[in-house]
């Protein structure tokens, strides 16, 4: 998995005024929780670093004024349009301690039910919550859907996971379904043909 490193500074003060000033300077307010520390640490990171972390499920190494803090991304809060990041929450990890995080599902292949049986692929779940040790966080979970026929479904329990990783979602939850598409009635087809 790609190593992500960020530079951060301690953030002085809180509130909307401080946050607006940071954003004008190209920075983003953030906070680090956990790590056995009694209080959260308010920090500021470069706003441009959002690109590096928004789809990253693994460890993030934050250089906080010379002190390395190893974290995972917990949340990015956006404006009401969902296009401008406003605040980031990190959770500091303790190696050897099981953590909970979210991992993206990558689907590979085209279902035979779509290619040959006029089926339609419906995706219901694009990421899952997992429990694992920090060093075992997978970058993504790869699921091959090429053998699915029309009418087939793939559930959480069908997702292959590396050793030491446990999915926390309900095993019976549908991840993808290849729906059977109803064919148009014959008389509608003949009307179309007649109009050509």
UniProtKB/TrEMBL annotation:
Residues 99-181 form the Large ribosomal subunit protein bL25 beta domain. Keywords: Ribonucleoprotein, Ribosomal protein, RNA-binding, rRNA-binding. GO terms for biological process: translation. One of its GO terms (molecular function) is 5S rRNA binding. Pfam families: Ribosomal_L25p (PF01386), Ribosomal_TL5_C (PF14693). The keyword rRNA-binding applies. GO terms for cellular component: cytosolic large ribosomal subunit. InterPro entries: Rbsml_bL25/Gln-tRNA_synth_N (IPR020056), Ribosomal_bL25/Gln-tRNA_synth (IPR011035), Ribosomal_bL25_b-dom (IPR020057), Ribosomal_bL25_C (IPR037121), Ribosomal_bL25_long (IPR001021), Ribosomal_L25_dom (IPR029751), Ribosomal_uL5_bac-type (IPR020930). Residues 6-90 form the Large ribosomal subunit protein bL25 L25 domain. It comes from the Bacteria. This is one of the proteins that binds to the 5S RNA in the ribosome where it forms part of the central protuberance. Belongs to the bacterial ribosomal protein bL25 family. CTC subfamily. HAMAP family: Ribosomal_bL25_CTC. Part of the 50S ribosomal subunit; part of the 5S rRNA/L5/L18/L25 subcomplex. Contacts the 5S rRNA. Binds to the 5S rRNA independently of L5 and L18. This is Large ribosomal subunit protein bL25. It comes from Desulfurobacterium atlanticum.
């Amino acid at each position: 998995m790609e190593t992500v490193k960020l530079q951060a500074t301690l953030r002085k003060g809180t509130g909307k005024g401080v946050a607006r000033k940071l954003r004008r300077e190209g920075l983003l307010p953030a906070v680090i929780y956990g790590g056995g520390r009694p209080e959260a640490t308010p920090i500021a990171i470069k706003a441009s670093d959002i690109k590096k972390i928004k789809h990253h499920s693994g460890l993030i190494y934050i250089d906080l004024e010379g002190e390395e803090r190893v974290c995972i991304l917990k949340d990015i809060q956006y404006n009401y349009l969902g296009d401008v990041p406003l605040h980031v929450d990190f959770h500091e990890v303790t190696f050897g301690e099981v953590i909970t995080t979210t991992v993206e599902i990558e689907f590979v292949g085209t279902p035979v039910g779509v290619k040959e049986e006029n089926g339609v692929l419906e995706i219901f779940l694009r990421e899952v919550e997992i429990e694992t040790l920090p060093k075992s966080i997978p970058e993504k979970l790869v699921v091959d859907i090429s053998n699915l026929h029309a009418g087939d479904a793939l559930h959480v329990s069908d997702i292959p996971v590396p050793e030491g990783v446990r999915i926390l979602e309900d095993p019976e939850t549908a991840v993808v379904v290849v729906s059977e598409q109803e064919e148009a009635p014959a008389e509608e087809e003949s009307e179309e043909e007649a109009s050509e």
